[in-house]
Design goal:
It is built from 14 helices and 12 strands. It is α+β, with helices and mostly antiparallel strands and about 375 residues long. The protein is globular and about 60 Å long. This is DNA polymerase IV.
């Protein structure tokens, strides 16, 4: 790369965001194992996030509250306050905008920033990341971790390396050696199923992937193989896109054990639907088309969808649709490995409908 071509990318990821906001706002929670989402005594639901005190017991996001309660019987469970988290997220974005307008939010608590040319002519992406972290700590009483590199993929991985309150820089000269030693499960976007498939092929670290041709990677992993071929060499040309048009919003989860149709599968579908719905709320767009994705134990995938003349706003209506799509799907007695829910065909929502959507709780009282 020439000097002119090298980008300066920062990935900012808030530390245990929901839990940290709760601990900031409610001193009684500080220093204690706190679980946001689910319910106490394992009565249902999944963990949205957990404080670092809770993570010491092995509690992680997307874990069932029943499992979380088993790991830490005296953990404190609280329901999410998404309005509060969004308010804080807006303030974080305001801090970002002091340095650049090239901001690509990924969720309420993380974003990419392109500071190749920054507003304050600081020039150093590391210095900018330090200043952003300092502002978040002093103004919002929260901590963030930052990854700095020349592309989005490496910056994303770097931000997770020294949490909490970390800052990691991976420069151009280090990237290929870094990627060669990176375990495949640490590759952003590689889930448990793909990681297992890689390991069955004898692919455990980036160096192993690097030995394969692009053609062979495509044979093994489809079009994603082309991405693996480039990224293991540190090549990621994706731009930070602040105004990227959103064509679909989705959430999915792969189960530790394949599931039969039943109450446990229904519970998982509800939580996945709520996760996708939360993302719609963040972007304030709502879809006319709802699609259910089902992957079976033999890796065959089917989809079922339903479209409507107007956007579907109410969570209870969306839940009814996704559960009906599952009920109508012919599973042929197969067990299910993955469920996914996506929204597309977005449309205008009237003010009254938008208010209803904003007020819909994602974790309703039983």
């Amino acid at each position: 790369m020439t000097r002119q071509m090298v980008r300066k990318i920062i990935h900012i990821d808030m530390d245990a965001f929901y839990a940290s906001v709760e601990q900031r706002d409610f001193p009684a929670y500080r220093g204690k194992p706190l679980v946001v989402g689910g319910s106490p005594e394992g009565r249902g639901g999944v963990v949205a996030t957990a404080s670092y005190e809770a993570r010491k017991f092995g509690i992680r996001s997307a874990m069932t509250s029943k499992k979380a309660q088993q790991l830490c019987p005296y953990a404190i469970f609280v329901r999410p306050r998404f309005a509060a988290y969004k308010e804080v997220s807006v303030k974080i974005r305001e801090i970002f905008r002091r340095y650049t307008d090239l901001i690509e939010p990924l969720s309420l608590d993380e974003a990419y920033l392109d500071v190749t040319v920054d507003k304050l002519n600081i020039g150093s992406a590391i210095t900018i990341a330090e200043e952003i972290k300092k502002a978040i700590k002093e103004e919002l009483s929260l901590t963030a971790s930052a990854g700095v590199s020349i592309n989005k993929f490496i910056a994303k991985i770097a931000s997770d390396m020294n949490k909490p309150d970390g800052l990691t820089f991976i420069g151009p000269s280090r990237i290929e050696a870094f990627m060669e030693q990176l375990p495949v499960e640490k590759f952003f976007g590689v889930g448990k199923v793909t990681a297992e498939k890689m390991k069955r092929q004898g692919l455990f670290i980036g160096k192993d992937l690097k030995q394969l041709t692009e053609h062979r990677l495509v044979q093994l992993f489809g079009k994603t193989g082309k991405f693996f071929y480039k990224i293991v060499r540190g090549i990621d040309d994706r731009e930070v896109r602040p105004n990227q048009e959103i064509k679909s919003i989705s959430a999915e989860d792969t189960f530790m054990d394949d599931l039969d149709r039943g109450e446990e599968l229904d519970d998982w579908l509800s939580q996945i639907t709520k996760s996708a719905y939360k993302r719609q709320q963040y972007y304030q767009i709502y879809g006319r088309t709802i699609t259910l994705k089902i992957k079976f134990g033999d890796f065959k995938i089917i989809t079922r969808s339903q479209s409507f003349p107007i956007p579907i706003v109410a969570l209870e209506d969306i839940l009814a649709v996704t559960h009906q799509l599952l009920a109508n799907a012919d599973l042929n007695g197969k067990k299910i490995r993955l469920l996914g829910v996506s929204f597309s065909n977005f449309g205008e929502v009237k003010l009254r409908e938008r208010k209803i959507a904003d007020q819909t709780t994602l974790f309703p009282q039983d």
